## 1
Amino acid sequence: MYKLVWNRQLEQAAYEYVEEHGLGVEKFGRTLYHKDYIGFHWVGDIFDYISLIMKVVPKELLSGLNKWKDLIETLVILLWLLFAMPVRYPVKEGDHFGAGELATSIRYEIGCYSNVMLSICFMKKAPYQPRPFLEGAACSSCPTHCEFFMDDDGEEVEGELCVPPDGYYNDQKAEAAALENISSVGDIVGVSILPIAILLMIWWIRR
């Protein structure tokens, strides 16, 4: 499974979805669709706000409160995923399962639009997999390698998530440029049609 990276185009897709449909609470737990992307509801910014509030808490109380906050946040995420994950395998081709799509091992990009309570997140569609995870030890099927991070003691430790493929950021920039070009062409077409429309309107009025 890959470590997720942020994608601005997917963030834009989430924003567009909310602009068109709102938060879509009536579809909570189901898969959301926008353009060629699939999305889902996720935890909002509430835990970030709680962390900000906790900065004013006395240090002697902070340690215990942090443990409880982390525990509750972890439980919420686990229950959210368990609720969304498919219960029968192999997964039927073409089926999607909301927030459970986070567990698909070959995805590594995500983008969200958030408020305090809820987020709308989108990911790219992935090739069919009969199971979300691939069998084997962590990172054993990585085309790259496992991520490394620094633990609390300052030692470098190998994680259990794959590093995204090389060049993914260049791919993202190319996608953004392509979208900008499409938008520019649309603007040019709109500008070129406008004078013709005005002339036709004047002609119609003067008939």
## 2
Amino acid sequence: MPSALILIADGTEEMEFTITYDTLVRAGVDCKSAFVHNDEFVTPPAAKGSRGIKIVPDGYFEPADSGPDKFDALVVPGGAKGAETISQNSAVQKLVRDYLAEGKLVGMICAGMPDGYTYLGRTDFAARLGSLAALTSGLPKQPLTSHPSVIAQLQDEFIYSEDSVVVSNNLITSRGPGKRTIDPNTPFAKALASGTAFPFAFKMVELLCGPEKRQEVHGPMVFPAGTPW
């Protein structure tokens, strides 16, 4: 049975975490979530997502228990604060390099904030969130994609694509939950997104379990007619 380690932190985008986790489990992938944190340990560990939803991971992120000898895939979701915490963690950076060196899959989705997002009156927050996992891990120049808000940080270091999902050898990247319009007086109340979390998750299933399993999982989800994935 294939296995996947899915990282999470305070501020992780809930859609990117839960849709990926859920879809992989439906395909029979043995998933474990690990909480990357900056603060003191609490029991049980609980991550507060970017929309305020609390998620209880399977445990804390422990580098010794997270290597490519333990899992077949590593998944790094986005969300502004979560992406910052995860991508700045030196153990995670090493883990990304180790997984790719061992021929294991690494999936990264979004890792940024929407265009025009205002957080506590600050419009520069997204621009300063430049230390994304692919960048901080020192990966070689190759095709990838991300949320549109962080193109400037990536386009000179990588071969940037605007495709929903990009596969470069064992690195799978995706754009995220989509562009949002946020009313600063009612935070998150007007969040609108189409999103690429599902096609990202399906691509992970396909690469871990094969195209037949992808179709097997896709059918019962009953997406509306015309859905492009």
## 3
Amino acid sequence: MKKKIKINEEQENLLRGLAKIIAQRGFASPVIFLLESMQPLNYIISQIMAYAEPFATFLVNEKNYNNIIAILEQREGIDYFLTILEDEENIRLVEQKKRKAVLKDIKKMKKVAKKDKKSFLQKLKGLKK
């Protein structure tokens, strides 16, 4: 039985935002692989991040950085993020399939329109004679 992760709304939004950015850029698979391999070390990584906080907060928003540390301190933190990331990746893939289907339909419509244009022009030529 998995433990419930203690997470607030701000942390949830942060994780969803990160997952969305990663998925949109097509890096979901490498990030999932990396996080899965680092999962046993999540608490140690959170402590290293806490140690590096004074330096890292020059580059990253301090509140977001501390939220990530708080999430990583929990054993289920990475699992929770991976679930969100996989959901975002699935959403991206579904949207991509829809876009491909729409483009395919547009190409079909262009072909039909081209045929119709040719037949229409031929009919016009026939009427002019």
## 4
Amino acid sequence: MKKKDILIVGCGNLLFGDDGFGCEVVSKLEKMNLPDNVEVIDAGASGAYYLMTLVDEDIKKIIVVDAIDFDLEPGTIKKIDVDELPNIKKYSFDAHNVPLAPFLKDLHNKGIEVVVIGCQGKEFTMPDIKPGLSEEVAKAVDKAIEIILGEIKK
């Protein structure tokens, strides 16, 4: 069995509108015939917790898929460089929110290739529960998958 050296992590919460983008993308990826060296994880709203437990010496590349708010047109896909991630000076651990950016930067500094595929959301409904993606973001799921498949081949 080939070792898993590419990890695709979908982040978000399906209950809060477009925040569920990453979960929708990995749900589709899980049904695809991907190379044996690729592992797909739906990390939900706990992306950092999952990454901290899953990253080992075999991982060469991590692709994180998540909804973003960069003031773009809703449904716009943006490949985000590690240097563009928010500059949070320290980790802030609590029961619900662990910033992912510092952890991804640390992984990058350790030689792991980090790719973030973000989709500009339209409706982030938290704390109000509203399952389902907006039309614009739902249309962007396949485009994100296309980009991810390209990243796997690199």
